[in-house]
From TrEMBL, chain B:
Keywords: Membrane, Transmembrane, Transmembrane helix. It comes from Glacieibacterium frigidum. InterPro entries: LipoPS_assembly_LptC-rel (IPR010664), LptC (IPR026265). It holds the Pfam family LptC. The keyword Transmembrane applies. The chain crosses the membrane at residues 42-67. The gene is lptC. One of its GO terms (molecular function) is lipopolysaccharide transmembrane transporter activity. This is LPS export ABC transporter periplasmic protein LptC. GO terms for cellular component: plasma membrane.
Length: 158, 233
């Protein structure tokens, strides 16, 4: 089931709410801490702390490259909710990755694993069991993926 | 045209005859007037006495008057009546030069600067611009109004402040303190503004003037609405 995040507009404005934001322009980073809430389009990403990496062209405005979220990371989109210990939103690669005790709820089905990758272009989300060792796309051996699938009742209206 | 004879017998030569008779009469009156005891004598007698007196009087006034009037014209410059300028020091296009602890110079230009009283080392300024030499180039702090605290080399600004430096940013708050000595910008009141990354609001702000390090605290909201440049891929 493809995620509603398909073709998610990564260029849309990103809103951050936090208790504290520290901008370190020298390192082109911004550290957000204290119940951080990130909203972009119809997607929200909450976490205890987030680090923004941005690039600063010589002229013109800086642009966000990547967001690293840490601690109680929770991704909510119209089609699914996922939680994990860490999260990486790679804006330029248009991919969101949750790592560590990942729980993915899509519709009634719930999947657990170590690593969830959602491709914001295709909307495809892949969940694999191994934590950290699996390279994206190639399921790692050994990690167990447990899942409880509930087949949504076929109703003619859909 | 026949000459009509006129009852008084005046003819063409009558005019001359008339003038003669008139002058005889006038002569008559002048001769009468010249008689002693006439009106003219009285006038002359009066004038004979009045004119010298008038001259003397005039002389007296000329001599005495300046003396008397001198007293009347002298006046005391009383301090409280003169219009006191309430500001002790009013400058236009004021320029203050100073140097920080590390010896880096700073200059504050202001459209207008007023120091209320010498006891209070606070100068109220309008459209001020402070320029500081930072290690990585000049930084400029501009604000429509502000107060410069000379003792502590600090600017207290109520309202918008624009800081142009390596990473320029602007903010607006009730009371922003710009310390020229330790090059920091600080406010403990709700503040909103923009940084290169986007626009923000927060309850408190601490930043260094060059904008290298900026800390926002208290219900912070940051909105990044830059289109992520494709080139950055």
């Amino acid at each position: 089931q493809t995620s509603s995040l398909k073709n998610h507009d990564t260029d849309a404005p990103i809103d951050f709410d936090a208790a504290r934001i520290e901008v370190r322009d020298k390192e082109n980073q911004a550290l957000l801490s204290g119940d951080v809430k990130i909203r972009q389009g119809n997607m929200t990403l909450d976490a205890d702390s987030v680090k923004i990496f941005y690039s600063r062209p010589v002229r013109g405005d800086p642009s966000v490259r990547r967001l690293d979220a840490q601690g109680n990371v929770r991704l909510v989109s119209p089609s699914e909710r996922a939680t994990g210990r860490y999260g990486v939103y790679d804006v330029t690669e248009k991919q969101i990755t949750l790592i560590g005790d990942v729980v993915l709820n899509q519709g009634q089905s719930q999947l657990r694993g170590q690593r969830l990758a959602i491709d914001l272009d295709s909307g495809r989300s892949t969940l694999d069991g191994a934590s950290g060792t699996a390279t994206p796309g190639k399921p790692a051996a050994g990690g167990r993926v447990s899942g409880r699938f509930v087949v949504p009742p076929r109703n003619p209206s859909k | 045209m026949a000459r009509a004879s006129r009852p008084d017998g005046l003819g063409r030569d009558g005019l001359g005859h008339l003038r003669a008779r008139m002058t005889a009469a006038a002569l008559e009156t002048r001769r009468r007037a010249a008689l002693p005891g006439g009106r003219h004598d009285v006038v002359v007698a009066v004038l004979k006495v009045a004119l010298p007196l008038l001259a003397l009087g005039l002389l007296a006034t000329i001599v005495i008057w300046p003396l008397t009037s001198a007293r009347e014209f002298s006046f005391l410059l009383s301090k409280d009546k003169v219009a006191m300028a309430k500001d002790r020091l009013r400058l236009d296009n004021a320029i203050y030069r100073g140097a920080t602890a590390k010896g880096q110079p700073f200059v504050i230009r202001a459209g207008g600067a007023v120091q209320r009283s010498s006891a209070v080392p606070i100068v109220e300024m309008s459209n001020l611009a402070a320029t500081l030499q930072m290690d990585d180039g000049p930084a400029r702090v501009t604000a429509p109004t502000g107060r410069y605290d000379m003792d502590r080399d600090r600017l207290n600004i109520a309202g918008p402040v624009r800081v142009d430096g390596e990473a320029g940013y602007s903010l607006d708050s009730q009371d922003v303190t710009v310390s020229l000595i330790d090059r920091t910008v600080r406010t403990d009141l709700p503040v909103k503004g923009t940084i290169p990354l986007g626009s923000f609001r927060a309850d408190r702000l601490r930043a260094d003037i060059s904008g290298k390090q900026l800390v926002l605290e208290g219900r912070v909201h940051l909105r990044i609405n830059r289109r992520s440049a494709k080139a950055a891929r």
